[in-house]
Amino acid sequence: MILSMTGYGKASAEFGGKKITAEIKSLNSKALDLQTRIAPIYREKEMDIRAMISTELERGKVDFSLYIERDDASAAASINRPILKSYMEQISSIANEMGIDEPEEQWFPTLLRLPDVLTKTEVTELSDEEWQVAHGVVAQAIARLMDFRRQEGAALERKFTEKIDNIAALLEQIEPYESARVEKIRARIVDALNSIPEVQVDRNRLEQEMIYYIEKLDINEEKQRLANHLRYFRETMQSGHGQGKKLGFIAQEMGREINTTGSKSNIAEMQNIVVRMKDELEQIKEQVLNVM
């Protein structure tokens, strides 16, 4: 089963009056391109987080966030009482010395605007208990993204199977035109020669040249190779994840055989079929870029 590189996962948990949330999303990329935004308290664990992500995701352009949301009580700033008291005493002393009125009812608006009166206490050390919770949140977000990738991969596999079936059916539609094409080529060459009465034709040499010309237009090898590529594409899809690059290479080889078939198809019916095969293959090439 194949996996898509497109995915999204999110998980949260409560710890110590705060909500720890991990969010991760990925898009297609040739290699693992990982961008992280991690809350300061968890930055010491960034290498561990990167290792968790790279082990599971392998490829893709990945954006990861680990952040904290605090409840109202823990988010509220604290009043630093000693500093506030010191400011008040200094203002009273200066007012007495200078003979001016104290703020009286305006004490609090004045004092609360002074530096360091309002403070937020932040935990600067990460405890083992909190890291265990955060680690679980990260793991859960990654797992949900992988579930998303599996679902998208199953949808891609169904799409690829449909397109491969269509190309195989179109390949079979070419066969009836091949024998008729040979006769048309032969008749066209003979008619062209007969239209020039003064030309003497060596019939044996003519037959040899026509056989050589017709062999150059033969597409049996291309058909066989294309059929092999179609079968190999199916087998590769079933061989497990991490096959995106290989599927891309196979699609390129399929394109070579279809293009060669088109260049050798000198009747309109065959060329129309080749155009339809190219259209089916182009849709495969567009979507195979999303396969991990």
Describe what you observe in this structure.
- The chain is an alpha+beta fold and 292 residues long.
- The protein is rod-shaped, with a radius of gyration of 37 Å.
- It has 9 helices and 6 strands.
- The strands form 2 sheets. The protein has a 4-stranded mixed β-sheet. A two-stranded antiparallel sheet has the order 5-6.
- The protein has 3 domains: 7-74 and 128-150, Ribosomal Protein S5, domain 2, CATH 3.30.230; 78-119, no CATH class; 152-288, no CATH class.
Strand line-up in the sheet with most strands: 1-2-4-3
Number of helices: 9
* Low-confidence runs of at least 5 consecutive residues: none
Morphology call: rod-shaped
| Run of helices and strands | EEEHEHEHHEHHHHH
- Overall pLDDT confidence: 84
Number of strands: 6
Strand proportion, as a percent range, falls in: 5-15%
The tally of domains stands at 3
Please outline what is shown here.
The protein is an alpha+beta fold and 292 residues long.
How do the helices and strands line up, and which of them pair or pack?
Layout: E1 7-15, E2 18-27, E3 32-38, H1 46-57, E4 60-70, H2 72-75, E5 78-79, H3 81-98, H4 107-111, E6 118-119, H5 128-194, H6 203-216, H7 220-238, H8 244-264, H9 268-288
Parallel strand pairs: 3-4
Antiparallel strand pairs: 1-2, 2-4, 5-6
Helix pairs in contact: 1-5, 5-7, 5-9, 7-8, 8-9
